[in-house]
C-alpha cells in the first residue's frame, strides 16, 4: 500500500455528506453512438458512466481522482438513438484515498411518454491523487438517508470481496511460480 501524499494523522478532514457530490449527467444518443445492431454501443454508455463517476469523485475529494477499477457494469435494456440518457452517480463509500462511486443509468425513450427506465448500473473505485499521481487522503463520506446507509454497507461488502479476490489470486500466482509451474 502506497504511503499517502498528505500523510498526517493530526490532519483529520471533515466528512462530506453524500448529497454534496451527487450528480446527474444527461445526454441524447445520436447515430454516431450505435453498434452494428443499430442500438447504442456499450462502450459509449461506459464512457458516460466513467465521466459521471469521475466528476463525483473529483467533487467529493476536492481535486483530481483516477479510475482504479470498474466493477459489475450491468446492461439491463438496450438504449436507442434519440433516447435521453441520465447517468446518476454518488459516492457510496470512502476509504483512505479511495472512493466507491455507484452509478445508475436511466433512459427516457424518445418515442414514448413513459417514465425514465433503468437500463444499467455500475460500481467504480476512484483513487484521489496529487499532481504527481500519488494517492492522497479523501474526506469520509457521510451517508444521509437510509438508502445511502444501505449503499455504504453494500460497498463495504464489495470492498472486502475485491481485496480477498486480489489476495487469493496473488497467492495462487506466487505458489505456482515457486513450484515452477508458470513459465516466464
Ligand atoms: C489507482 C492508483 C492511483 C493506485 O496507486 P497505488 O500506488 O497502487 O496505491 P495504493 O495501493 O495505496 O492504492 C490507493 C487506493 O486505491 C485502491 N485501489 C488500488 N487499486 C485498486 C483496484 N484495482 N481496485 C480497487 N481499489 C483499488 C487501494 O485499495 C487504496 O485504497 P485506500 O487508500 O482507500 O485503502 C494507481 O494504480 C494508478 O494511477 N492507476 C492508473 C489510474 C488511471 O490511469 N486510470 C485511468 C484508466 S485509463
Automatic annotation (TrEMBL):
PROSITE patterns reported in the protein's UniProt record: HOTDOG_ACOT (PS51770)
User: Quick one: a GO cellular component term?
Assistant: cytosol
Family matches, as Pfam families: 4HBT (PF03061)
Where are the residues of the annotated region Disordered? Answer: 1-20, 135-155
**InterPro entries, per database record:** Cytosol_ACT, HOTDOG_ACOT, HotDog_dom_sf, Thioestr_dom
Biased region (Basic and acidic residues) positions are: 146-155
* Recorded coiled-coil stretches: none
Q: What's one GO BP annotation on this UniProt entry?
A: acyl-CoA metabolic process
Which residues belong to any copy of the HotDog ACOT-type domain?
A: 19-132
Q: Which PANTHER family match?
A: ACYL COENZYME A THIOESTER HYDROLASE (PTHR11049), PROTEIN VDLD (PTHR11049:SF16)
State the similarity comment.
Belongs to the acyl coenzyme A hydrolase family.
User: What is the official name of this protein in its record?
Assistant: Acyl-CoA thioesterase
Per the UniProt record, the source organism is Streptomyces sioyaensis
Amino acid at each position: 500500500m502506497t504511503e499517502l501524499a498528505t500523510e498526517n494523522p493530526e490532519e483529520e478532514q471533515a466528512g462530506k455528506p453524500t448529497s454534496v457530490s451527487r450528480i446527474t449527467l444527461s445526454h441524447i444518443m445520436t447515430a454516431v453512438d450505435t453498434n452494428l445492431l443499430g442500438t447504442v454501443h456499450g462502450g459509449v454508455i461506459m464512457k458516460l458512466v466513467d465521466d459521471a463517476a469521475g466528476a463525483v469523485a473529483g467533487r467529493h475529494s476536492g481535486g483530481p481522482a483516477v479510475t482504479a477499477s470498474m466493477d459489475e457494469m450491468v446492461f439491463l435494456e438496450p438504449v436507442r438513438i434519440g433516447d435521453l440518457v441520465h447517468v446518476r452517480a454518488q459516492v457510496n463509500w470512502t476509504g483512505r484515498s479511495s472512493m466507491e462511486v455507484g452509478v445508475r443509468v436511466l433512459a427516457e425513450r424518445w418515442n414514448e411518454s413513459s417514465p425514465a427506465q433503468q437500463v444499467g448500473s455500475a460500481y467504480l473505485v476512484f483513487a484521489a491523487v496529487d499532481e504527481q499521481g500519488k494517492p492522497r487522503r479523501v474526506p469520509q463520506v457521510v451517508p444521509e438517508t437510509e438508502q445511502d446507509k444501505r449503499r455504504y454497507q453494500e460497498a463495504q461488502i464489495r470492498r472486502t470481496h475485491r481485496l480477498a479476490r486480489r489476495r487469493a489470486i496473488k497467492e495462487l500466482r506466487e505458489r505456482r511460480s515457486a513450484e515452477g509451474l508458470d513459465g516466464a
